[in-house]
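$ ./design --mode recover --in tokens.txt
reading tokens...
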């Protein structure tokens, strides 16, 4: 569904959508609608029929070596996935309950942060969304009586006027000494500069190192009790430096995009809990994360946000356009800071998709994958001694997975050349395996959706393809938000040479990948072997 035309209609529709998230998620069997359960039975029975009637070519002697390679790779990938699932359960059932009970006890005893600083950036946001976001923050400040300053980085008077009028109406009963509002109009383009200006304004207020700082986006709507559930975690653990929360997504756009993002957030919940078991996370999500002021209110941290860059042998020095959440994460990771994930505090991300859905999907992958690749290499370079080994290996695995993911579809096609029909055996296996993975993911969602097995594989293939492209084009950045920014697309002979050499690298690497697989399959002979 696309966004309603009027602000009133938008607000009414948003209220209706938010009502679906009220209360705890249903149990596993309660997540199934009759339609999805019926479709699952049809798919499952269809797979059983195919297994019984399609000739099994996996054990054909001419392709047995391919089956062994795919089976070994499958055991590795699914074993790694299963490891995350087990770790997530351990975190949810054993580690997290104690953390929550201790934090709740501190809150009940009257603990509150000395002062809370909220850093929020907004840029020509939908008025209905802006008002909802500000209202959700002020409502919790009013209820919990937390001394708070809200710093809002803006690019024009458009957002400021909407927020000021709303606050003057909605927050008349909130005393100035409890909550105050500060606008920071950025004088340089880009979200990073807006965040830097806000952080400098916070520093001018002479904050205490134990003051808490929230980083949030202008389209991140607080769920119930987000402040109560997140802030006492820092009192419960004096070593904790940062945390991030659960997210749900509300999409105004194509239905399949909403399903895809629902699946992505289910994957996120599983992975975040697995990572948090090692007292680290792999990203401090920009939608909403909380930091202890000790490290983030320093010149080094602020400059890292404003001017984070990479020195690359081909692209030279280039600044990062988006990915401020990855920059803040890397900075704290390099300082060996403790981080965690709060699974019962939810922030609602409101996505308004006006452009082509598939194009937006690929663009998001380019942004996410580019941020991951640009920061992953230097995080790996810190070494396993700078962080728990499991977290370090997760970073390594991210770079391996983009190639291993492409092995199975390529070898399925190549195997069909040797044993016609081998491809269809692989398709059956892909459908079956993604159905099993989706059953696990349904445990981290509010509802079961049988489009996930198909979207999951599409997600993996597109993501891996984009990563392979991006690893050779790290300077290429595009962000449709905040003024449709882009970088790395300059002209001139130097850029032409760089782009040509990057394409040469891409073609050479993918060519070598295909040649190696063709040689293993037995379709070609390498002269030096």
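writing sequence...
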């Amino acid at each position: 569904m696309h966004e309603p035309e009027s602000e009133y209609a938008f607000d009414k529709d948003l209220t209706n959508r938010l009502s679906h998230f009220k209360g705890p998620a249903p149990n596993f069997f309660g997540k199934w609608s009759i339609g999805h359960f019926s479709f699952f039975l049809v798919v499952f029975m269809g797979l059983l029929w195919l297994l019984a009637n399609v000739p099994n070519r996996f054990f054909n002697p001419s392709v047995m070596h391919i089956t062994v390679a795919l089976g070994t790779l499958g055991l590795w990938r699914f074993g790694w996935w299963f490891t995350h699932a087990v770790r997530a359960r351990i975190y949810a059932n054993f580690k997290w309950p104690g953390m929550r009970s201790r934090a709740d006890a501190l809150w009940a005893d009257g603990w509150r942060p000395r002062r809370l600083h909220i850093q929020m950036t907004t840029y020509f946001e939908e008025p209905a969304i802006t008002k909802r976001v500000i209202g959700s923050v002020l409502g919790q400040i009013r209820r919990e009586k937390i001394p708070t300053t809200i710093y809002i980085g803006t690019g024009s008077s458009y957002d400021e006027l909407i927020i000021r009028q709303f606050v003057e109406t909605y927050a008349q009963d909130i005393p100035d000494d409890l909550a105050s509002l500060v606008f920071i109009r950025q004088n340089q383009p880009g979200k990073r500069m807006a965040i830097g200006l806000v952080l400098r304004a916070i520093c001018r207020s002479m904050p205490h190192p134990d003051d808490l700082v929230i980083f949030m986006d202008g389209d991140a709507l607080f769920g119930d009790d987000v402040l109560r559930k997140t802030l006492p975690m820092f009192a419960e653990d004096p070593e904790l430096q940062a945390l991030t929360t659960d997210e749900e997504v509300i999409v105004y756009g194509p239905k399949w995009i909403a399903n895809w993002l629902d699946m992505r957030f289910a994957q996120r919940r599983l992975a975040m809990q697995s990572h948090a078991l090692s007292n680290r996370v792999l990203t401090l999500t920009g939608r909403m994360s909380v930091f202890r002021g000790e490290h983030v209110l320093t010149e080094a941290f602020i400059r890292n946000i404003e001017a984070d860059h990479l020195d690359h042998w081909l692209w030279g020095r280039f600044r990062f356009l988006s990915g401020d959440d990855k920059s803040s994460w890397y900075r704290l990771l390099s300082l060996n800071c403790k981080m965690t994930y709060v699974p019962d505090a939810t922030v609602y991300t409101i996505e308004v998709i006006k452009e082509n859905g598939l194009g937006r999907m690929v663009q998001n992958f380019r942004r996410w994958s580019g941020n991951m690749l640009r920061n992953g290499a230097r995080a790996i370079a810190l070494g396993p001694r700078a962080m728990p080994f499991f977290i370090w290996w997760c970073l390594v695995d991210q770079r391996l997975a983009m190639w291993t993911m492409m092995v199975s579809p390529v070898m399925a096609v190549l195997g069909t050349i040797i044993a016609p029909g081998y491809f269809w055996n692989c398709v059956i296996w892909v459908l079956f395996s993604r159905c099993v993975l989706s059953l696990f993911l349904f445990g981290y969602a509010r509802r079961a959706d049988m489009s996930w097995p198909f979207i999951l594989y599409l997600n993996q293939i597109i993501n891996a393809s984009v990563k392979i492209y991006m690893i050779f084009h790290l300077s290429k950045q595009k962000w449709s938000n905040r003024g449709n920014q882009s970088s790395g697309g300059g002209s001139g002979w130097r850029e032409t040479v760089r782009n040509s050499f990057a394409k040469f690298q891409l073609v050479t690497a993918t060519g070598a990948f295909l040649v190696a697989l063709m040689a293993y399959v037995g379709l070609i002979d390498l002269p030096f072997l």
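exit 0
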